[in-house]
Amino acid sequence: MSVNNKVAIPVVVILLAAAAGGGYWFWHQKNGADQKTKAAATQNQELYTCAMHPFIIKDKPGTCPICGMQLIKKVAPAEGTASAKEQEMLSHVSLSPTQRVMANVATVEVGKVPLSKEIAATGIVQYDQARQAKVTAWVAGRIDHLRVNTVGSYVSKGKPVADVYSPDLVAAQQEYLLALRSREQLKNSPIPSISQGGNGLVSSARQRLKLLGVKDEQIASLEKSGEPNIRIPVYTPLSGIVIEKIVQEGQYVNMGDPLFAIADLSTVWVEVEVYENEFSFVKLGQSVAIQSQSYPGKTFTGRVSFIYPFLDPKTRTVKVRVELANPGLKLKPDMFVNAIIKSPLGSGLAIPASAVMDTGTRQVVWVEKEAGMFEPRDVKVGARVGDNVQILSGLSQGEKVAATGGYLIDSESQLKGGSGHEGHTPSAPAAQPTPGAPAAPAAPKKGGGLSMDDMKM
């Protein structure tokens, strides 16, 4: 190969490479300008989309080919971030009348109503401790006769329940009779101290008889008869039911030994256990409804008479004492009952509990800002009252919320690109209506089916 050929070949290769590079540069410049022109034209063009189906995008107003709703103007987002208007649109959900019916969405108006919390609890019927007593022996002796011999018998105050023979009581009666005779003999003495001494003996002997349980009428009978009673009757201190029989006939007893236990069941207690997160609502004097499985459909009414000052560490409950009348003795001690304590909370805002979606950390409701358009709203709830829940903040009187179908609205919000109740930014209570609010669905155009050109994926 000659020297000229060795030089010519590299020169040709270099010239060809330079020509190719220059051609590519001119082509790239022209194509980039065209792309920028198209992007600018697209950016300046007004586009329209469906609030329910944001992937439907058209270059002129009209109706959505899927749901028939009126298209709204699409707002171009700022570079790298979404605009405030778009964020607001993402948090809103629009429903046509047909969709509301299919989703079973019903709205209620937030109103101020009298609230009363009902605390459900269980309890056990107990004896009224202020109406219990024991019949005791006032004197040592032998039970000669039991006038009440069975548990469950009714006894009346002032009537004897047993007869006791007591040598000490007989001796005390004889001393009293002797003091009466001595007083008669000494009252005519000319010495004042002797005449007045007889009265002192009688008074002392009479006092001893009363300490042994002898009543005034029995002492009067003793003075009239002049003979001591061998058996002395024992009386009950109150009227009620014998709940315990302790002695048998013929048994010897000492002074103070119990003979019977008596309870008045015309009034009973119900000790109700209230959980620690609810007992703060319980106040003295509140009305309580008591129901028992033994009497279906019947309600007994009582009132809170005492709240125990301690908490059971095992059950985490506080006992509340309810006092109520027991006509017909229908409520038996140790009977299990259900109780409902009614605690008035005053007047306040309330909505159905089904309208509140609880995420665990927040409570969200869907507020109807316009006809068919809903926005999520954070609320703070209070006590639950029946099927309603108290609203402490987040809603105003007169606003409408979705009582049913809230979870379907929330699902639709997430499907259309919104953040749903899990992470949406709470809307301001006085948010302005979104332009282009949805109207009633229009009839689809004849032959106007869904075209892939309408979708911008």
From TrEMBL:
Keyword list, A-Z: Ion transport, Membrane, Signal, Transmembrane, Transmembrane helix, Transport
Domain CzcB-like C-terminal circularly permuted SH3-like: start-end pairs: 349-409
Domain CusB-like three alpha-helical bundle, first and last residues per copy: 198-228
InterPro entries: 3HB_CusB (IPR058791), Beta-barrel_RND_2 (IPR058792), BSH_CusB (IPR058790), CzcB_C (IPR058649), HMBD (IPR045800), MFP_Cation_Efflux (IPR051909), RND_pump_MFP (IPR006143)
Composition bias, Low complexity: 426-444
Gene3D superfamilies (UniProt xref): 2.40.30.170, 2.40.420.20, 6.10.140.730
Keyword Flavoprotein attached: no
GO MF terms, alphabetically ordered: transition metal ion binding; transmembrane transporter activity
GO biological process per UniProt: copper ion export; plasma membrane copper ion transport
Residue stretches making up the CusB-like beta-barrel domain: 267-342
Membrane-spanning residues: 7-27
Region (Disordered): 412-457
Statement: the UniProt record of this protein carries the keyword Signal: yes
Domain spans labelled Heavy metal binding: 48-74
Domain CusB-like barrel-sandwich hybrid, chain residue ranges per copy: 133-263
Pfam name, any one: BSH_CusB
GO CC terms, sorted: membrane; outer membrane-bounded periplasmic space
Family indicated by similarity: Belongs to the membrane fusion protein (MFP) (TC 8.A.1) family.
Name of the molecule in the record: RND transporter
Organism: Geomonas silvestris
